[in-house]
Write a structure and sequence with these properties.
Blueprint: E1 8-16, E2 21-31, H1 34-43, H2 53-72, E3 81-82, E4 86-91, E5 94-98, H3 101-108, E6 112-114, H4 118-122, H5 132-138, E7 146-151, E8 154-160, E9 167-174, H6 177-187, H7 196-200, H8 205-211, H9 233-236, H10 242-260, E10 270-274, H11 281-291, E11 294-297, H12 308-321, E12 342-344
Parallel strand pairs: 3-6, 7-10, 10-11
Antiparallel strand pairs: 1-2, 4-5, 6-12, 7-8, 8-9
Helix pairs in contact: 2-3, 6-10, 8-10, 10-11
């Protein structure tokens, strides 16, 4: 999995039948070099063009590296690979994930499932989010209602109720993306480590009030975002101090999460936070302030919050292989529960092929 933060590739080994998770294997994170991250961010919000082929090849290289490391760390036979690719454009009904599953299968010699989102879009869905069914499988024994909040480049939630069909998922607003972009532009560092910079700044409430007027927040779920949807916010804060800018953007992420409460069928008693945002202590403090409910890191209950989405796409690959639904009316807005994914088998190269 390579998410909208564009910081690298997360890989995970998972033992699953696509319904329950039998066991977790090792995980691996391969960071992208700064030059690749810059190229990806420049490509965001744009449809792929021929020049993007070299970017896709570079993405494939890092995924291959991650998979090979994981294969060396297990003595078990790996049956299937789920390959999400790198989302560079997501404005339903269009979405583009660069990275070729067929090429990956040919290189690695293992069947690959990719292009998870296209069938959902073709049947009226938003094409996101796709992890709720995995969250539901993990949370079988946890008290409900429960919310899992994943904070990557974009933040999304999964609300899980008592019944099997009590499943709601949607993007809630900017995650780390705006914060990371501001940090990198001013310092060259990739993120606000622990929220230390935000902690030093002052939150400018007038900007929060303006940004929360965006029509996205009143739109009922299911709904999804492109990473660049709120990018104009960076222009709004150009005349305030750097620390105040980071603090205000961090508060915006938390306030956007608070807005999600309006769309839940029932208030949750617990929030579990995963993704890069779970490492931002200032953001977690603001979340507790805004939503006034118990907030825990997913790692506190034994989940690997950094590998959760990689594990999800391993799970989804098996579901795809078995023809089980990946998306649902309550998660993507698709008309009925929908399968998806493209299965590619490896092939043997002939002597005439390079």
């Amino acid at each position: 999995m390579s998410g909208t933060s564009a910081d690298g590739v997360d890989g995970a080994l998972l033992w699953t039948d696509g319904v329950t998770v039998k066991a977790f294997g090792p995980t691996k994170y391969i960071p992208y070099p700064a030059s690749l991250k810059r190229s990806l961010i420049q490509a965001y919000g744009k449809r792929p063009d021929p020049e993007g082929e070299s970017l896709a090849q570079e993405i494939l290289h890092y995924h291959l590296n991650c998979i090979n490391v994981l294969l060396k760390e297990t003595s078990q036979k790996v049956d299937l690979i789920g390959f999400h690719g790198q989302t560079i454009f997501h404005t339903p009904p269009e979405t583009y994930q660069i990275g070729d599953g067929k090429a990956l299968a040919a290189e690695i010699g293992i069947p690959v499932v990719d292009q998870f989102r296209l069938n959902d879009l073709a049947h009226g869905g938003q094409g996101a989010p796709f992890v709720p069914v995995f969250h539901q499988a993990l949370a079988q024994d946890l008290p409900k209602p429960l919310v899992i909040l994943n904070i990557g480049g974009v933040a999304n939630v999964t609300w899980i109720g008592e019944k099997e069909n009590d499943l709601l998922g949607f993007d809630v607003g900017p995650g780390n993306g705006l914060i990371d972009d501001l940090i990198q532009a001013h310092t060259g560092f990739p993120w606000d480590e622990g929220g230390a910079i935000a902690q030093k700044g002052i939150i400018h409430e007038k900007f929060l009030e303006k940004w929360l007027q965006h029509p996205f927040f009143d739109q009922p779920p299911p709904k999804s975002l492109d990473r660049q949807t709120f990018h104009t916010c960076l222009a709004d804060i150009k005349d305030i101090s750097f620390e105040d800018g980071v603090a205000t953007l961090t508060a915006f992420t938390a306030a956007a999460v608070q807005k999600a409460l309006e769309h839940f069928p029932e208030p949750p008693s617990l929030w579990l936070v995963a993704g890069g945002g779970a490492h931002n202590d200032t953001l977690l403090s603001l979340l507790r302030k805004y939503i006034k409910t118990e907030v825990k890191k997913a790692s506190e209950i034994g989940w690997n919050g950094d590998a959760l989405e990689a594990q999800a796409f391993a799970f989804l690959a098996v579901r795809s292989f078995k023809g089980l639904p990946l998306s649902f009316p309550g998660t993507t807005g698709v008309r009925s529960a929908c399968t998806g994914g493209r299965l590619s088998f490896p092939y043997q190269k002939t002597n005439t092929e390079n």
